[in-house]
Amino acid sequence: MADGASAQRVDMARALRDAGLTAVLAFGLLLPLIGFLTITDTRNNLVLVTRWPLLFGLVAFVGIARFVFSIAIAPYLTQRRERPVAAPSAARTWMRKWFVSSPIR
Amino acid sequence: MEVFLQQLINGITLGSIYGLIAIGYTMVFGIIGMVNFAHGDVFMMSAFIALIAFLLLTAWLGVSSIALALFIVLIVAMLFTSLVNWVIERVAYRPLRGSFRLAPLISAIGMSIFLSNFVQVSQGPRNKPIPPMVQGEFVLLNRNDYAVTMSVRQLIIWGVTVVLLAAFWYLVAKTPLGRAQRACEQDQKMAALVGVDVDRTISMTFVIAAALAAVAGTMYLMYYGVVTFSDGFVPGVKAFTAAVLGGIGSLPGAVIGGLLIGLIETMWSAYFSIDYKDVAAFSILAITLIFLPQGLFGRPDVEKV
Question: Complex ipTM, two decimals?
């Protein structure tokens, strides 16, 4: 029980660290093109305006999405991979003979 | 003669830009056997990053020295573009490495469309003109009322290209990373068996290709003074043509191919028709593929039995 709780804590810490790293990476990726917008002003000069709320909103979204993936979706996918493969249903076996698979090269 | 000299200067300048982009195509093809069709759009994105960095430095931070601003812009564009290409490799290409041969190619085309649309949506579809970053020119020859000139911008492009190619040659020929790249190019499995970190080497190849594309993007912005979201496609395909002409997979071939495409394009524009300059450049691609599929410096593909 104690081991399980410890493993869960470690997973949570790792999920938080991954989410933080992903958010930092997203910040670096989005800073030039989302953080700044180039527009032409009334004197026909190209000027920069900032879009900090959009930038930080997207960075937060990416970080949260990564956190949710780490704590909820990734364990589910691992669990599904480890589950023994069930035998195909009778209907599926019957259908299979009509569809010959061909590899794409 | 004067017109020819002027077009020679213009052609070498344009060819230097194509050559820098072509190295990215040829390096990635050499190491993972995939044509990275998103590379042209990485080049376009780097030009946008350079544009934003230039405006930030000159209009916001008040940097008045153009040389310093250009140097910082170059470094910033290289850093951010490398990060973009590193992420592209991790997200779009690495998961497909063991997949069927067309999968990464389709992914690259998708990534190209994504990058182009991302820039269109995030920065708008209009042209982004900036005032000339660098001005001034030298008159090399003045005869028959025709002055052959070379601008400071062209001189910078030549100089930066030569210095970068020398540094790049040193990196590939003399450093452990270059050795790892050459090993992965020959046989990835064998390279892994002798201790080469194949994933890291491939990532670094994408980073270097992006850094060179960023230099090309910054030079393109400085030379033409305008960039738009669709600027990745045509220069990208021309650089690909240069890589094919030089022999895809050959690094000197990419540079020579770039210079040849640049020269063919400018000479065609000067002596025939400027409207058909793209037709001339792309005809070279078709002719090379038909009559010289391995290119000028490429090795013929030998099937191992």
Answer: 0.83
**Cβ(B219)–Cβ(B17) under 8 Å?**
yes
What is the mean pLDDT of the segment spanning B195-223? 94
Distance (Å, whole) CA B183 – CA B175: 12
Q: How many CB pairs under 8 A join A and B?
A: 55
From B60, B123, B129, residue closest to A33, measured CB to CB? B123
Strands of A1-105 (E only): list them. 36-40, 46-50
pTM: 0.88
CB < 8 Å & 24+ apart, contacts of A74-83: A75/A11
DSSP readout, B69-85?
A: HHHHHHHHHHHHHHHHH
Chain CA centroid to CA B86, Å? 16
Of residues A36, A38, A105, nearest to B101 (C-beta): A105
List of chain A residues whose C-beta atoms are within 8 Å of the C-beta of residue B102: 104-105
C-alpha to C-alpha distance for B252 and B243, rounded to whole angstroms: 10
Q: Kindly list the residues from chain B whose CB atom is less than 8 angstroms away from the CB atom of residue A32.
A: 48-49, 52-53, 80
